[in-house]
Amino acid sequence: MRILLCIFSGTGNTRKVGAFFADVLRGLGHEADVALIREDVPMPAIEGYDTLVIGYPVHAFNAPKPVLAFLKRLPKAQKPVYLLRTSGEPSKINDASGISPKRILKKKGYDVRGEFAYVMPYNIIFRHSDKMAMRMWKAALCKIPKDAALLAEGGTSLRKVGPLRRTAAAVVRIEHPAMPILGRTFRVNRKKCVGCAACVAACPRGNITMKNGIPKFGGHCVGCMACAFGCPEDAVRISLLNLWRVNGQYSFEGEPAADEEVCRYCRKMYLNYFHTAEDGEQPFGSNLEKGKGK
Ligand SMILES: Cc1cc2nc3c(=O)[nH]c(=O)nc-3n(C[C@H](O)[C@H](O)[C@H](O)COP(=O)(O)O)c2cc1C
User: Fold this and answer.
1) Do residues 231 and 198 touch, judged by C-beta distance below 8 A?
2) What tens digit of pLDDT does each residue of 160-175 get?
């Protein structure tokens, strides 16, 4: 089977999960390609693929706007599709993020068969510890092989969302029109910025340009945090959201957090997610750091 994974990722979590998912599919004997959903990457040709996977990070209980725009540009087809998402916490309300993608895909004739959800460290609001990030990755290494096997069998795993969660997600979808406005007010701290243009390269929207050696933020921001998270000098200031700024890659190395080290915030939910994902499973490969997804 030939599978195409189309991935939108601001700060690398969804890309890491998607890359590992593709590795596992290849290990099962399938062909798997990864195409990034970015402004500077052309629309992939989907004709030669049997199955699509659409990957995205949850943004305010919704799928990011560029993912919906990408789905709207897909040609009509009757292929099986699976959604793959990452989120900072394992809350059920994040399942609402599948509503719009499923609606768009179904309208175009696609057969949406499954939704796979992974918890990965927050890139906004607060920074998880590296041990927590590693426990999340360990859970993903246990869960992805099961999900990839289900996809390879053509199985189904769809999630239902009740009316309250639907409504809450619809309300905070205000993020879609608000972020381009707010993003225009992002600035760099001129004492810190070294003009390296890492933010320009990281932005999946092509929304940042260099003017006189200083980044300027345009009107197409979707709040993915690629600029602030990836700045090597922590120089990007994200306007009203600045107190929620998280800077610097997680290491995804070393020992994962033990149960008693799991953060207190939503502790019960995290433990439940970890135990369910890890239930009776060894992480893929004998060594956690062998997970190849980058
Ligand atoms: C603007 C924004 C909104 C977010 N909203 C949610 C959310 O509603 N629920 C959640 O669990 N995580 C939320 N997150 C966290 C991300 O979904 C999570 O860190 C994800 O793994 C990031 O993936 P990426 O590195 O591929 O961009 C949000 C992140 C951003 C930047």
Assistant:
1) yes
2) 999 999 999 999 999 9
